[in-house]
Specification:
heterodimer, A: alpha/beta, Hypothetical Protein Ychn, Chain: A, globular, B: Hypothetical Protein Ychn, Chain: A, five-stranded parallel β-sheet
Chain lengths: 100, 130
Amino acid sequence: MILHTVNKSPARSNCLKSCLRIAPHGGALMLIEDGVYASVNNTKHSQLIVDALTRMQVFVLEPDIKARGLSGLLIPGVSLVGYPGFVELTQTYDTVQSWY
Amino acid sequence: MKYTLAIYGAPYSSQAPQTALSFAKSLLESGHSIYRLFFYMDGVHNASAIAVPPQDEVNIPAEWSALIRKYDLDAVVCIAAALRRGIIDKTEAERYEVSAHNFAEGFTLSGLGQLVDAGIASDRLITFGP
């Protein structure tokens, strides 16, 4: 199964949308860098992740959340991971597909 | 597990080098290995020896050099991407008769074939896009 990383905000780029169109059930999504903005609750773009959570796990990189002051604003169900957790996920999944 | 990290973003204009550095440190600390670091497109600017950021900022090219030295890593910079952006080592500077060179210690100039090889030889290839 594939771990998809997305590093752009959905407000700036279509790469999250493109990724979610392709990512099958059972894959996982890892939001990094400005990609973490997609995990904020009650925004124009929140529904993308709310829908994604019904078919896949969604992880966000905690240092990028903290750097942007987004702690406590996340959509329920997304999982926070640090760099060690990110490394572990790249082992759990067979392939990592980066969207940027 | 053997990892290859492909870095496509330049320091100070993209977060990719910082993410890749933190990822590399984390995986090396957890006992995994890096088969190759591959710097491509604007990522070649990570191999500049003459970047001088303010003292209270992270010197990303220097951080790479230190990591490469500490773990004896293979760090390849795409030669075609580097030369057109003015990242050049002594040998190439002499070949093209340009007046200076700026290639940081620990890196190697080579071709895109090294990325293909790394993709085959590594368990994981992780791309850090710009």
